[in-house]
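user: can you give me the structure for this one chain? tokens are fine.
assistant: on it. calling the predictor now.
[tool input]
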Amino acid sequence: MYQQVIQAIENIIPLDTAEKAFITSLFTFKKYNKQDYFLREGQVCRAVGFINSGLVRYYATDANGEEQLYDFGKENDFMCNYSSFLDHSPSASNIQFMEDSEVLSISHEDLQRLYAGVKQGERFGRLVCEQLYVYAIKKIASLYADSPEQRYLQFLADYPGLQHRIPQYYVSSFVGVKPPSLSRIRKRMASRQIY
């Protein structure tokens, strides 16, 4: 149950046997059903989740009441609204399960214990924050600089196989187009055998 999260952390920093045992003691396991929420808009995000199995979507509701999907989380991903988690402010977005899922969660307090109790714990935190920052900047830049087709190609590269697990209207929301536009993009790409 804990091997996946240990492996994800070891992909960033080395861990010894005692540190692995310490880390597993800090996480709690929970099952979620499809359509359940890990976090709702207006709540304070009090934990980071690690997805052992399943799928989530991140979305916000705009002024017109429409959902704007901006990210996904899948197996072996950490999930969180980091701005809410870090400064304890109400979340402006939602994290909802798109499949029945199994999650390991760590609270803000226990994450601080991890940073302090693991030799390279602080380094782990810094590297994760750097990765999140780079990802956010690239995503923002893509919204302004890339065409919808380029954003769809990036979606396929970042989330291989995911287009078969989710409704296409979620993909179109993520790419920033209406479903008919996504269908046209996919037809053009299929005719050029891009994917």
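assistant: here you go. The longest strand covers residues 67-74. Residues 121-145 form the longest helix (25 residues).
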